[in-house]
């Protein structure tokens, strides 16, 4: 399948709606292993993005990602603002002037987002962060086998990890079996992608 501006906008719209809907739950996860603001912060960015589209709809495919990056970087705060903002910005850069993405190009764009998070967060896979959802999601997407079940299983695996990065790492062993809020919101990001279109088809 081919990613167009319309499909990308649907992806981010579904993501924003999911974030707003799960706001309380995301903040609850963050109250346990962080500072309790993840849901509020993410929902603020999501709301701002949806509102901005009423006035300034994206013109090009990359605009969808650029506009999301701006909202997350300027309006979200916390740790998640810069991390998601960087991811979206790197994705916009990887898209450049393309107006359509083939499946393989989409995978590369998401990989660029992943690298952005990794560098900005100075983190690696296995530390119980967003990356632990992004990495397996990218792998499954590459094989055209990403499903909501895989995302569920992935989040369960991340939940079993001990946090060694960020605020949650201060909890040490007590972070085991608690849901990482960034991993939970990342799961919503990929669920939204699945809902926006049939990525495993042609
Ligand atoms: Mg927080």
Automatic annotation (TrEMBL):
Pathway: Polyol metabolism; glycerol degradation. This is phosphoenolpyruvate--glycerone phosphotransferase. SMART domains: Dak2. Residues 6-195 form the DhaL domain. It comes from the Bacteria. GO terms for biological process: glycerol catabolic process. The keyword Lipid metabolism does not apply. Homodimer. The dihydroxyacetone kinase complex is composed of a homodimer of DhaM, a homodimer of DhaK and the subunit DhaL. ADP-binding subunit of the dihydroxyacetone kinase, which is responsible for the phosphoenolpyruvate (PEP)-dependent phosphorylation of dihydroxyacetone. DhaL-ADP is converted to DhaL-ATP via a phosphoryl group transfer from DhaM and transmits it to dihydroxyacetone binds to DhaK. One of its GO terms (molecular function) is phosphoenolpyruvate-glycerone phosphotransferase activity. NCBIfam families: dha_L_ycgS (TIGR02365). The keyword Glycosyltransferase does not apply. Transmembrane segments: none annotated. InterPro entries: DhaK_L_YcgS (IPR012737), DhaL_dom (IPR004007), DhaL_dom_sf (IPR036117), Dihydroxyacetone_Kinase (IPR050861). Keywords: Glycerol metabolism, Kinase, Transferase. Its EC number is 2.7.1.121. It catalyses: dihydroxyacetone + phosphoenolpyruvate = dihydroxyacetone phosphate + pyruvate. One of its GO terms (cellular component) is cytosol. It comes from Viridibacillus arvi.
């Amino acid at each position: 399948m081919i990613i167009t501006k319309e499909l990308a906008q649907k992806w981010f719209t579904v993501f924003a709606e999911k974030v707003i809907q799960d706001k309380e739950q995301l903040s609850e996860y963050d109250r346990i292993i962080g500072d309790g603001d993840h849901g509020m912060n993410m929902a603020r960015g999501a709301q701002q993005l949806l509102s901005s589209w009423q006035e300034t709809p994206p013109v090009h495919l990359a605009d969808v990602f650029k506009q999301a990056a701006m909202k997350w970087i300027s309006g979200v705060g916390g740790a998640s603002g810069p991390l998601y903002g960087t991811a979206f910005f790197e994705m916009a850069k990887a898209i450049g002037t393309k107006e359509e993405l083939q499946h393989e190009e989409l995978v590369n764009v998401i990989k660029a987002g992943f690298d952005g998070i990794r560098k900005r967060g100075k983190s690696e896979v296995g530390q119980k962060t967003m990356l632990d959802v992004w990495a397996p999601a990218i792998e499954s997407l590459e094989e055209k086998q990403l499903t909501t079940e895989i995302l569920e299983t992935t989040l369960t695996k991340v939940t079993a990890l001990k946090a060694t990065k960020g605020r949650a790492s201060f909890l040490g062993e007590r972070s085991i079996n608690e849901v990482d809020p960034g991993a939970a919101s990342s799961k919503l990001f990929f669920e939204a992608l699945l809902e926006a279109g049939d990525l495993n088809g042609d």
